[in-house]
Specification:
The protein has 465 residues and is an all-alpha fold. Helix content is 72%, strand content 0%. The chain contains 19 helices and no strands.
Length: 465
């Protein structure tokens, strides 16, 4: 039985993206991707070994595991992500995607950059518990804005891209993710190599530099987003009166709860894999596998660079074969290959470590390449931004944001180095089950998506799952 969405009742309705200028699509893709890069630049900086240790020391009282303190701080930003999604997403459905995306990039860059100027818990210009409160507040600002960022950026790209190339162009949202993470990690690496991660200069002021660099990066992202017009799909819906007169938060939960639950399950797998492999692995490499900070960063950057290059090819492939085959590949791959991959990483052999991590990275890439074209297509235009933002951030807050903290704590408490593999296997099972209940939407115009549950009988209207 087909599980595809139906186009609206008028199957000949115009596709607003059919005649969109390709240069406008490229500008939209760049503007959306750069904001996502800004978000992950922050995580790239925060998860770098030297910064993780420094943040845990500089903003908290002495004693305890500095890495766990940092991951607690990182997890705090996820507390407010669902609130940001629930507030900013529905407003984006009412007034347009572009305005909210301009706001989120400002808030994200400031939330990261100001960490570089606030006083620390002790030492010169110390502020005691006031410093701890300030850094928590900035993490909450960053988390709130990020709550409205991802759903909006994914929706923006999906509604701008030509229908038959939505997978290809949508993959660049995650090119932004990996670019931001790689840049953040390399900035920290360059500073620690130049100053020494244990030098007095680094511990006094050098660690602040990566955070301060978020300000010019955010300014570039804001400039690009202010130059953009809203999406053709949203403008077309506005002309026909098919946008929300008020932020439709209630409608998301009452009329689209099935799709929302499916989204939460798929995002659970995505974000456990995403945050474990991109955020937790530097600490795993250094504290569990006893790899040096420099070697750890270089392995991460190498694998992430390979993933980055693969994304447009995988996104383009999803336009031909459908989104679900690639997502099933990832889910089943994590179930079957997580344990062998982590076994390879623990053999004290650099080549095996890279191969094991690359296996995990390419499975994650299969999801990253398709999510921006999959998630927004699960909901109609009038609630799309809000529904994606709410579902994505609820799942991210509960499962993604706690991944590093849970995994690091469990490894520390049990000494079991395979905890990440077990966690990924469980996530893979949940993700695979959730995929059963979503339709295949490759080849279907975003403007034609009206409601779930209809059977698509038009031959060739979309790729079959």
């Amino acid at each position: 039985m087909s599980s595809q969405y139906s186009p609206d009742t008028d199957s000949t309705a115009e596709d607003p993206t059919a005649n969109v200028d390709i240069s406008a699509v490229r500008r939209a893709v760049a503007g959306a991707a750069l904001g996502n890069a800004m978000e992950w630049y922050d995580y790239g900086v925060f998860s770098a070994g030297a910064i993780t240790a420094t943040i845990g020391t500089e903003f908290f009282p002495g004693g305890g595991n500095a890495a766990i303190k940092s991951f607690v701080l990182l997890a705090m930003s996820f507390i407010v992500r669902p609130i940001g999604g629930a507030i900013l997403g529905p407003i984006g459905d009412k007034i347009g995607r572009q305005k909210i995306l301009a706001l989120t990039v400002i808030m994200m860059s400031l939330g990261t950059a100001l960490v570089g100027v606030i006083p620390t818990f002790s030492g010169p210009y110390s502020f005691g518990y006031g410093a701890m409160a300030l850094v928590i507040l900035l993490r909450l600002v960053q988390g709130f804005s990020t709550g409205g960022e991802y759903g909006g950026a994914a929706t923006f790209m999906a509604e701008y891209a030509p229908t038959k190339r939505r997978g290809f162009f949508g993959s660049f949202l995650e090119v932004g993710t990996l670019t931001g993470y790689i840049v953040g990690a390399l900035v920290v690496l360059a500073i620690t190599l130049g100053m020494g991660s244990t030098s007095s200069a680094f511990n006094t002021w050098g660690w602040r530099i990566p955070f301060l660099l978020a300000l010019p990066l955010g300014a570039i992202g804001l400039y690009l987003r202010l130059k953009l017009e809203d999406t053709p799909t949203f403008k077309s819906a506005a002309k026909t009166g098919d946008t929300a007169e008020k932020a439709p938060l209630g409608e998301v939960f009452t009329q689209h709860w099935r799709a929302l639950l499916s989204l939460i399950g798929i995002v659970l797998l995505l974000n456990i894999a995403d945050y474990m492999l991109l955020t937790d692995m530097p600490t795993y490499f250094t504290t569990t596998l006893h790899l040096g900070d420099t070697a750890s960063t270089l392995v991460l950057v190498l694998v992430e660079a390979i993933m980055l290059v693969s994304l447009p090819f995988l996104g383009g492939l999803s336009d031909k074969v459908g989104r679900k085959p690639l997502m099933y590949t990832a889910a089943i791959g994590f179930i079957v290959l997580s344990y062998p991959a982590f076994w390879m990483m623990q053999q004290k052999n650099t080549a095996l470590l890279i191969v094991g991590f690359l296996i995990m990275g390419l499975l994650l890439a299969c999801m990253l390449a398709t999510i921006a074209s999959t998630y927004p297509a699960m909901f109609p235009t009038r609630v799309r931004y809000g529904a994606v933002a709410i579902g994505y951030n609820l799942s991210t807050s509960v499962f993604g944001g706690t991944t590093s903290l849970v995994v690091t704590t469990l490894i520390s408490a049990t000494g079991i180095a395979y905890i990440p593999a077990y966690y990924l296997i469980l996530a893979g099972i949940i993700g695979a089950v959730s995929l059963i209940f979503i339709p295949e939407t490759a080849g279907i115009p975003m403007s034609h998506i009206r409601e779930r549950g209809k059977i698509l009988e038009t031959a060739g209207a979309g790729a079959s799952s």
